[in-house]
Prior knowledge:
It comes from Cohnella fermenti. The protein is 26% helix and 25% strand. The chain has helices spanning 4-7, 15-19, 32-35, 50-62, 119-129, and strands at residues 23-30, 44-47, 64-65, 76-82, 87-93, 103-107, 115-117. Strand 4 (76-82) and strand 5 (87-93) form a beta hairpin. Helix 4 (50-62) packs antiparallel against helix 5 (119-129).
Amino acid sequence: MVALVLILPALLAGCSKADGQKGASVTLECIQVCLTMAAPPFVSRTYEDGKALSLFREAIDRAGPMERVLDYGAIFRMIVRGQDGAESSYHLNIANTDSPQNGLLLKLPNTEQGYRIDETTSRKLMELIYDQADSGQFGEEGQ
């Protein structure tokens, strides 16, 4: 298992290029690794507010491809729904950790090509997903 639990992370770059549209919602479903957590953050959660959608889109747009085939355990299944109702599915790995991390994103069904999410975006996603931000101002500088 590629040290995903340690590296954990990278969202998907190239996904947005395949999607080509702005999302109307993003749903995260707790799967595989998430289901084994002592306290999973949720079973399923849907994000529809503009700030959260912008953060997910940033992660998708800016993630960079990884060089090797991955062997990993998924934390979340992420479903991006476009304004026209079209859906794209991903595996998203963002851990709840105090340590710096790069998120992992894979556009399904291709689970061999991973995309790395930068540390700053990964931190913002972690705060959003695990409800660690103050007053909904996730990941803003100076918080």
